[in-house]
């Protein structure tokens, strides 16, 4: 197949358009929705329609910790798009089902059989309880997430009607002309009969995959495998009562709760076991850039269980390696690692920069970053304070910064863009000693952890902008611009734009017209980034020098895009002098004189 290859050469060893398409990959649980592929969600309504209006009861990492569902909801609400992958291990992958019983009268004999099978489209706790209510010409199918109800609860309509964790779908039991499908219904509404033809009509209308359930007509087990024309299903419900708004009672006919199996969502530990199984890699599909676009890859707050007590490294590396492999293979996104949410000793905190040391693989780690610690902050969706993983804190703060007019590469770090809103506590406090260790001020051969600090006079602030890329000063006497997240994000935005332009020009003539078109589309993009301090200079070379006769014969277009990225100010070396009549403030480039009056 045609291919697009973008090689990166790092010439920064010495020293875009405001992209709103920030797509974040988040794995997690949900009360409904597909579980075999990531789904791109761009707005809250689609997220709720696809994955439900609340998180599963056991969907959080632990009590008081934000769930991946809420993690995703808040980022979408803040302006990001989300690739949400619902995680359902194979042992939970059987959708729940239940049967509506019937009594069949045929030739004077009456037998009880299943008439209709109600199935959940997907597995999960949203179908822990399935009820159906029959109110004359309406069939309502209820499915619930939450505490398991007992048999006696089936007569209490408060457990079925009006609860926020119940949803239902309504099917009208009428034909195309609005006529009832019932052959007869008793005066009190407690029983009725429906013919075989009407049953088939009903099931033809609703035997389709909806968001949550499908309904299937169950034929007889006799030789013709169908309901005979003289067969009639006798439906016998019982009556429950609900309070209407004005306080009066209203009777509804209601069937008992349907039996179901495998009607629970996996717990946090179930998900961790699944993610750490070598046979499972939920990040593998992200490597295909022709199908998925993504800028940030997260674990949704799922982490390894702990740090090793002697080496201070993460106890399991599979989740992080899977994330890193996907980011590096694509080379146009950033993996954001979360450290374990555990009680951390002073030694572990001091040596946290070593947590991902075993993942070192040259430039590969420039596609990853890590923040710490976990932060206790307000979640907009629930309006409750929760422990939030550092990746969420970074992304939500970035989203808020972009809303205020910043660009993606102007990463949230420091007081102006890195202030964490609605944060009241941290898992532990970070001072100067930890910041120096984590940010490699002295130990430049180690990976860097970006601290979230309760900064005096400013509150909680993200105070770092390093990738995990580390270079040993004993073997190299230089560093790389790719140690900065801002630089990495600039390269990501530019490479995404190059890919999109190349995709649009594939199969065009390999000639000067196509080369000029490429340059013409990329130039304004780079100019905009330059105008907003993402890069200092750039150069695009795509001409007969890069595209020789031999290259053209191979159906290949070659070009070079050079950039000089802007670098962040991290260290201030200022001389302050106090004289009799003037104050001098000196830095490395100029002297500012402030006269006194």
What does the model show?
- The chain has helices at 44-51, 68-77, 196-206, 268-275, 318-330, 346-350, 390-403, 415-418, 432-438, 485-505, 512-531, 549-553, and strands spanning 23-28, 39-41, 81-86, 97-106, 109-120, 129-135, 138-144, 166-172, 182-185, 192-195, 213-217, 232-235, 238-243, 249-254, 296-297, 334-338, 368-372, 375-379, 384-388, 423-426, 450-455, 459-462, 535-541, 560-565, 575-578, 582-586, 591-595.
- With 597 residues, the protein is of the alpha+beta class.
- The protein folds into three domains: 23-89 and 267-486, Rossmann fold (3-Layer(aba) Sandwich), CATH 3.40.50; 97-254, no CATH class; 507-565, no CATH class.
- It has an eight-stranded mixed beta sheet with strand order 2-3-1-15-16-17-21-22, with helices on both faces. It has a six-stranded antiparallel beta sheet with strand order 9-10-12-4-5-11, with helices on one face. Strands 8-7-6-14-13 form a five-stranded antiparallel beta sheet, with no helix packed on it.
- Strand 9 (182-185) and strand 10 (192-195) form a beta hairpin.
- Helix 10 (485-505) packs antiparallel against helix 11.
- The longest helix has 21 residues, at 485-505.
- Mean pLDDT is 77; it is low at 12-20, 146-159, 571-578 and 582-597.
Provide a short characterization of the protein structure.
Helix content is 21%, strand content 25%.
Notable traits:
alpha+beta; 12 helices; 597 residues; eight-stranded mixed beta sheet; 3 domains; six-stranded antiparallel beta sheet; disordered C terminus
């Amino acid at each position: 197949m045609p291919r697009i290859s973008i090689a990166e050469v790092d010439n920064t060893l010495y020293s875009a358009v405001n992209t709103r398409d920030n797509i974040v990959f988040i794995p997690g649980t949900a009360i409904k929705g597909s579980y075999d592929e990531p789904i791109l969600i761009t707005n809250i309504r689609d997220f709720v329609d696809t994955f439900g209006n609340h998180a599963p009861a056991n969907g959080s990492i632990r009590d008081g910790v934000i769930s991946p569902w809420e993690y995703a909801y808040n980022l979408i609400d803040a302006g990001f798009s989300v690739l949400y992958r619902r995680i359902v291990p194979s042992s939970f992958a059987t959708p729940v089902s239940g049967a509506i019983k019937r009594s069949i009268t045929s030739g004077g004999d009456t037998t009880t059989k299943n008439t209709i099978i109600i199935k959940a489209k997907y597995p999960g706790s949203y179908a822990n309880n399935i009820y159906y209510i029959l109110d004359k010409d309406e069939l309502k199918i209820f499915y619930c997430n939450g505490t398991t109800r007992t048999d006696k609860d089936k007569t209490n309509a408060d457990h079925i009607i009006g609860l926020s964790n119940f949803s239902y779908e309504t099917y009208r039991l009428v034909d195309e002309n609005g006529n009832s499908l019932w052959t007869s219904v008793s005066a009190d509404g407690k029983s009725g009969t429906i013919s075989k033809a009407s049953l088939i009509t009903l099931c033809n209308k609703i035997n389709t995959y909806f968001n949550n359930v499908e309904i299937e007509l169950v034929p007889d087990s006799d030789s013709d495998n169908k309901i005979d024309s003289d067969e009639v299903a006798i439906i016998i419900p019982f009556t429950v009562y609900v309070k209407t708004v004005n306080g009066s009672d209203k009777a509804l006919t209601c069937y008992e709760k349907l039996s179901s199996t495998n009607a629970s969502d996996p717990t946090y530990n179930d998900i961790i076991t699944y993610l750490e199984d070598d046979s499972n890699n939920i990040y593998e599909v992200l490597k295909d850039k022709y199908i998925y676009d993504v800028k940030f890859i997260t674990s949704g707050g799922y982490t390894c269980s702990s740090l090793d007590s002697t080496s201070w490294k993460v106890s399991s590396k599979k989740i992080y390696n899977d994330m890193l492999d996907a980011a590096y293979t694509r080379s146009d996104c950033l993996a954001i690692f979360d450290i374990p949410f555990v009680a951390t000793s002073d030694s572990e905190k001091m040596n946290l920069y070593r947590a991902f040391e075993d993942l070192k693989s040259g430039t590969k780690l420039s596609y990853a970053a890590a923040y710490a610690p976990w932060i206790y902050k307000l979640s907009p969706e629930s309006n409750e304070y929760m422990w939030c993983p550092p990746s969420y804190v970074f992304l939500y703060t970035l989203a808020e910064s972009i809303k205020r007019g910043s660009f993606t590469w102007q990463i949230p770090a420091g007081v102006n863009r890195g202030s964490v809103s609605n944060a009241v506590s941290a898992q532990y406090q970070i001072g100067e000693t930890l910041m120096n260790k984590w940010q490699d001020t002295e130990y430049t051969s180690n990976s860097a952890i970006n601290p979230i600090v309760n900064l005096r006079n400013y509150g909680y602030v993200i105070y770092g902008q390093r990738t995990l890329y580390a270079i040993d000063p004993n073997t190299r006497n230089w560093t790389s611009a790719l140690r900065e997240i801002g630089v990495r994000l600039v390269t990501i935005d530019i490479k995404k734009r190059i890919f999109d332009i190349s995709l649009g020009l594939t199969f065009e003539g390999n000639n000067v017209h196509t080369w000029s078109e490429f340059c013409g589309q990329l130039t304004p993009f780079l100019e905009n980034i330059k105008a907003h301090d993402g890069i200092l200079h750039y150069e695009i070379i795509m001409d007969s020098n890069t595209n020789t006769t031999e290259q053209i014969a191979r159906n290949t277009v070659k070009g070079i895009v050079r950039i000089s990225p802007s670098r962040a100010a991290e260290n201030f070396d200022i001389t302050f002098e106090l004289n009799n009549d003037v104050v001098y403030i000196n830095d490395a480039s100029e002297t500012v004189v402030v006269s006194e009056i």
